[in-house]
Amino acid sequence: MIHQKRRQELLRKLERNAIVIVSTNSEQKRNGDVNYPFRPDSNFWYLTGFTEPDAVAVISKDNYAIFLRPKDQKKEIWDGERLGIEIAPEELLANKAYPIESFFDEIKILINKDKIVYFDDSSTNIINKSIISSLNSSFEPLKPYLSEMRLLKDQDEINKMQLSAQYSAETHMMVMKTVKPGMYEYQVAAIFDSEFTRRNSRHAYPPIVAGGNNACVLHYIENNKKLNDGDLLLVDAGCEISGYASDVTRTFPINGSFNDAQREIYEIVLNAQKSAINCIKPGEKVNRPHEIACDIISKGLTKLGIIKDSSGLRDYYMHNTGHWLGLDVHDVGEYKTDDDYRCFEECMVMTVEPGIYIRKNDKIDSKYWGIGVRIEDDILVTADGYKILSNSVVKEIEDIEHIMN
Ligand SMILES: [Mn+2]
Description:
By secondary structure, this protein is an alpha+beta fold. It folds into 2 domains: 2-150, Creatine Amidinohydrolase, Chain A, domain 1 (3-Layer(aba) Sandwich); 152-404, Creatinase/methionine aminopeptidase superfamily (Creatine Amidinohydrolase, Alpha-Beta Complex). It is 33% helix and 20% strand. The chain has helices spanning 2-13, 42-48, 73-79, 88-92, 103-110, 129-133, 143-151, 155-178, 185-198, 260-278, 288-303, 397-404; strands at residues 18-23, 29-31, 34-35, 56-60, 63-68, 96-99, 116-118, 138-140, 202-203, 208-211, 232-237, 239-241, 244-245, 248-253, 336-337, 340-341, 349-352, 355-358, 371-374, 377-382, 385-388. Strands 6-5-4-1-7-8 form a 6-stranded mixed β-sheet, sandwiched between helices. Strands 9-12-13 form a 3-stranded antiparallel β-sheet. A 3-stranded antiparallel β-sheet has the order 10-11-14. Helix 10 runs antiparallel to helix 11. The chain is globular. The N and C termini lie far apart (49 Å). The structure holds manganese (II) ion. Manganese (II) ion (MN) binds at residues 247, 323, 351, 353, 376.
């Protein structure tokens, strides 16, 4: 029902004679006869709720047609059950279902000349631009309309995102209680593998488990080094529930106690993160959290003598403070409208994740070398402010040291 509601809402935003074509992905080969685990296309999933590969939805005001893989007993014995053409209309609330192989013949009948076709080209989707443009009709991009819809989460999405963030946060807590010097990064990653699987979810993105200086590699996913006594550990890991991502980062001392230099850096990042979150409310500019975080980190690093002034900030804080979160971990939705930053609205979800990264052998006091700190939470914009979806994992220094010892 929720998907039908979304299809109707989308059509209300488009021209009256609109016809929407949205397709999902094919399975991707890993090697030999082995495929990567399949993940549906987010737009297709959002509008149909259908999670099999090789399918296309064609949606207009008076017709919803779905193209999908037909039943095939031989293939189903190997690869699992398929919904099939016969029960698809009832199951997916479509007017008619067709075998995917007939798409090119049928689409010519479904599209007539007075229709405006809304369609996006994507390299992973099974229907590409050259096929669609051979249909000799007028085309509009679908993305702007769908991205705006996906940016504002409905209650069903908020429930899933809350659960997703909670699972991730609880697993981060478990990890803090388990980590000890001498463990390996992959053993920490395995806790997320196990917990996410146990709760019928999976990673929303490859987890980052980065001891010491590895935290300064922003997309470190090797996760294969030993955790050393005296270093910090940065862990960025989140699961997805029915496709909805959470994205959570915590940084803590491997031996359970912050040293003075680590504490100094951590407190700057924590202060920046909390202040950035605090400004979030409907009507506030969406780049305000980043401005606040940059200001606090810049002043903090200047005070410690690490930078001379704010012009040096980018050497130690080189990414943005947050991004939209939803069916994609870096979710769709514009940050600017008409050249200026837009404002937060109720039911948007954004991450807030400032950091400081000081590489080994940097030309500053060596006590700061190899300190990489990032703290990340998932924030839902509410009617009068915000809600931290990932708040069941601690981030205050006293709380971290308390649960680790
Ligand atoms: Mn993030």
